[in-house]
Amino acid sequence: MKKAAALLLGSTLLLASCNSTPSTPQPETVSGQVKELSASPSGTITYSSWTGGAGKVLVSVEGKDNLVTADLTADGRFSLTLPSLDAALLSNLDLTSDLPEGCTGSLTTSGASNARGNVATFRVQAGKSGEIAPAGFQVRTSGGTLESVSMEGGLYVYADKAAGLSGRLNCTQDGVPVTGNINVQLQAGWNKMTLTLSATKQGGTLSLKTGSLPAQWLYLENDSALSLGQQSLNRSAAAQPVLKVAQALPFFR
Predict the structure, then answer these.
(1) Dist. CA 8–CA 150, nearest whole Å
(2) I need a surface site. Which of 31, 109, 204, 246 has the fewest CB within 10 A?
(3) pLDDT tens-digit map of 137-176
(4) Through-space distance between the first and last CA atoms of the chain, rounded to whole angstroms
(5) Judging by DSSP bridges, how do beta strands 163-173 and 103-111 pair with one another?
(6) From CA 131, how far away is CA 176, in angstroms rounded?
(7) 46 burial level (CB within 10 Å; 0-12, 13-18, 19+)
(8) Strands 55-61 and 103-111
């Protein structure tokens, strides 16, 4: 299965759905307004209006590009419907109770053991082109030094059956403590999933849950977004232990 998108952006879960009886997956309406990231010299991040003009939003899944195409207005608004996916586009979700290396705690699977699915990715084609996603970043600096970094990234995950994983992790990565809370409930059809990461020099936390998404849809090709968001996360020594745990989880491997 395709690694989940530009931001991360990935990681683990509480799935309380115990009923594995298949139901008919339904289409999902998706709407939003694309924003861009801007930053002050001090590192304060703000969300600014879309400047790429009118164009198209294109949705792809592994195995099919341009699954859906919708209009993008000049101010960045769009609305579209994600359809049910054919069985040929689905692959094993690989939910497992195995713990990431360096972690204690427990993960518990529930629901169907043979659930299959896929992940949607979104991009814009307009005066500016590139990937978009529900996401948010926060960077805190002091005297020019990066003190903390946090990020949330959202995914639309399709499943053909209810299935999931739940639990709490206590990990040590590179001598840094990392805690994780997993609360994912995949139902048949399209599911909203959010991964949240936070890191300081003292340690980090992550959570993976279903049911909601970050408020903003962000254009991810913006230089500010890359340097202050993803790149800050990727380059931060404090964030590396959290990223290692996240990358060992389903959907982000």
Answers:
(1) 12
(2) 31
(3) 877 766 655 567 788 999 999 999 999 999 999 999 888 8
(4) 9
(5) antiparallel
(6) 32
(7) exposed
(8) unpaired
DSSP string, 193-223: EEEEEEEETTEEEEEEEES---S-EEETT-H
pLDDT digits (tens, 9 = 90+) for 84-138: 999 999 999 989 999 999 999 999 999 999 999 999 999 999 999 999 999 988 7
Structure tokens at 136: 């948010």
Paired residues of 29 in beta bridges? 81
- CB 37, CB 51: distance < 8 Å: no
Single-letter amino acid, residue 60? S
Instruction: Give the span between the Cα atoms of 89 and 234, in whole angstroms.
Output: 31
Is this structure's pTM higher than 0.70?
yes
CB 208 within 8 A of CB 253: no
